[in-house]
Amino acid sequence: MPLGLLKYGLSSKYPARRHFPPAKDLKRSYDVVIIGGGGHGLAAAYYLARDYGITNVAVLDKGYLAGGNTARNTAIIRSNYLTPEGVRFYEESMRLYRELSEEFSYNILYSVRGHFTLAHTDAAMRTSRWRAEVNKHLGVDSELIYPDDIRKLCPSMNLSDDVRYPILGALYHPPGAIARHDAVAWGYAAGAARRGVEIHQMTEVTGILTENGRVKGVETNRGTIHCNKVLQAVAGSSSLVGKMAGLRLPIRTIPLQACVSVPLKPFLDQIVVSGSLHVYVSQSSRGELVMGGSTDPYALYSTRSTLDFKESLLGHMLELFPFLGEVSVLRQWAGMTDMTPDFSPVMGLTPIENYYIDSGWGTWGFKATPICGRTMADTVATGVAPKLIEPFRLSRFDEFAQVGEKGAASVGH
Amino acid sequence: MKIMNCPLNGPRNISEFVWGGEVRTMPDPNGCTTEEWADYVFLENNTAGIVREWWCHVPTSFWFIAERNTVTDEIIRTYPAGEVFKTRVDFAPRPKTQEGTR
Fold first, then answer.
1. Å from A390 to nearest chain B CA?
2. A400 contacts in B (CB within 8 Å)?
């Protein structure tokens, strides 16, 4: 009854619940400045406050809270990676994700769906087998299955041979999940703000102040801030922010486009990914099909959408689900990804003292949000990168010690 | 579809081309340090603005250079690599003792 609702809305007995305290003036100095108010930066602020009692922290964002790649990903969470370093890291992230709604007292809509990585070639079957064995060895639920099993689990998928790329099998990862990405960032932001962390939106960092190879503060469009430590946790603009600090990074900024269909009745429980078809798709709790593909074919600092991408993505979607032929696309968008040469992130210490980096999150950043926050908080608080992220250090490129995860990227790039 | 002007074949669909990254000077593999080589192989300028890049027209395997704005996605000029690379680059010969090592 709309009028009844209005009564509650206007009554002072039922005040609106405020997620975050109102914005304050920017102070002249903080213990820690976090550049980037997305999931990763907010999670780091949360764990700094919760686990290390460091609350004199400012999270700065040039736009609005969690409005960058945190708002633009396709919300898939999985840990079936290829290298032991990657599997251990993402598995720990999934463990944290499962506890997150309870931790925040705020529902992040974590929904376990099961995750298929379809194989259409012998090479893909071989990689799937390899990943399944690495995963099982490290205690991750993952196995190679064949079309008969796929048909039982996902009857709506087209498994016929009468297509350009018939499905030979799939890497099946039952714990694969999706979550509400905004809620993850808001949960971390609210928890951090409650503990005293300040979140400043529309505050763009324009320069990094250093002295004798040590960070001293940041310049922003709202004035200069002095601080002891800086964590760079941006995406898309990692190279540009890094350059302000004098860093050169192994990153190319490449757009990744995605779209959703109009809402449909539930027919797809699992998350379906195909490297050969450059498609990944899941059905959200609202019924929309959330679809993404490979990154754009060249570097660009832009979030424009193209028709070429949609034609290729949707053509391949129809091979998997031919009955979607009459369904419309409802929304489209793009994010800017930090692509690294080995498809692994760049995390931890930098050559600048007390300047820490969390970047290189290409197309795999959302699923790592909790563990990134936790390990980067540890790094900022102690000045030492924990063992779990040591393999992802920036200096690995100088040492030719890459962590090759291209074989576990959701789609071919 | 976006159109790129190939210096050999004229205006073609962008899907016929492959991006090869920024034009950079390769250090002498036998004379440079490991850090210089790692920098050349892995690190990027990743400039936001006008850059000079390698592109290839795949059906004809023709590599050329394009000047492109990486913020607006505007292709400013394309031309054959010979406009930039006018002389042959000779590196120091590989020392015999390093045969079989990295």
1. 19
2. 34, 38
Whole-number Cα distances in Å, A204 to A37, A42, A226, A236, A382:
11, 16, 15, 14, 27
CATH code, domain carrying A113: 3.50.50.60
Structural domains in chain B? 3-95 (3.30.2270.10)
Judge whether A244 lies within some domain. yes
Per CB-CB distance under 8 Å, the chain B contacts of A307 are 1
Which one of B14, B41, B44 has the shortest CB-CB distance to A251?
B44
Residues of B in contact with A308 (CB under 8 A): 1-2, 14-15
Domain holding A216, by residue range, is 26-252+271-276+342-413
Q: What is the ipTM of this complex?
A: 0.90
Token pair belonging to A409: 């990227």
A341 contacts in B (CB within 8 Å)? 41-42
DSSP 8-state code for residue B52: E
Asked whether the whole model's pTM tops 0.80, one would answer yes
CA distance A297 to chain B (A): 7
Query: Per-residue pLDDT tens for A360-404?
Result: 999 999 999 999 999 999 999 999 999 999 999 999 999 999 999
Residue A410 confidence class, pLDDT cut points 50, 70, 90: low
Distance in angstroms (rounded) separating the CA atoms of residues A337 and A334: 9
| More confident position, A275 or A374 | A374
For chain A, what is the domain count?
A: 1
Min Cα–Cα distance to chain B from A359, Å? 14
Helix axes A181-194, A84-104, angle to 10 degrees: 70
Continuous H helices in A138-224: 147-153, 181-194
pLDDT in tens, A102-137: 999 999 999 999 999 999 999 999 999 999 999 999
